[in-house]
Every structure is written in structure tokens, then in C-alpha cells.
Amino acid sequence: MFNSILGISGTVETTSDAQKEVIYGDYNFKYETFIPSYFGKQKLNFSTIHDVHVVQKEDYHQKIRETITKNIVG
């Protein structure tokens, strides 16, 4: 447990209602401020068909490693 949480990262602007309930209910956030990304507009495309993987718990880290290896460029 923390005495205070000063901020959270990245995708708060696109959180679902259930996620907001956790942030504002469970963690007692009272305010929100959105700051434009230092890196500019995101150019990634997220596909629920290709980018969501369901694996057994024991295969979780292996799947992450495989995905990273597959997507390394250069």
C-alpha cells in the first residue's frame, strides 16, 4: 500500500468503465490530467484477433518471449 499515487501511465484516456472503477474506487484517484505524448501520435495498430493470446499460466512467459522475438526488427 502507498500513502499516495502521483500518477499512472499511458493509456488512461482509453480505459474502460470497469478499469475506471478500480482507479477511482479502489485507488481513490480524485483528479485526472491528460498530457500529450512526448513521442507524438501512436502509430501502432491493435488487433483483437492477432494481438490477444490466451495461454496456460505456465506458458505465459514463453508466449511473451516468442512474441517479442517474432516482432524484433533489425
Characteristics of this structure?
30% helix, mainly alpha, extended, single chain, 74 residues, 2 helices
Task: Show the helix and strand layout.
Layout: H1 17-26, H2 60-71
Verbal overview:
- It is built from two helices and no strands.
- It has helices at 17-26, 60-71.
- The protein is extended and about 40 Å long.
- It starts with 16 loop residues before the first helix and ends with a helix.
Number of domains: 1
- Tell me what portion of residues adopts beta-strand conformation: under 5%
Order of helices and strands: HH
Q: Indicate the percent of residues in helices.
A: 25-40%
SS summary, helix count: 2
Sheet bearing the most strands, described? none
Rg calc:
17 Å
Number of strands: 0
Amino- and carboxy-terminal Cα gap: 41 Å
How would you classify the helix and strand content by structural class?
mainly alpha
* Approximate shape: extended
Tell me briefly what this model is.
With 74 residues, the protein is mainly α. The protein has one domain. It contains 2 helices and no strands.
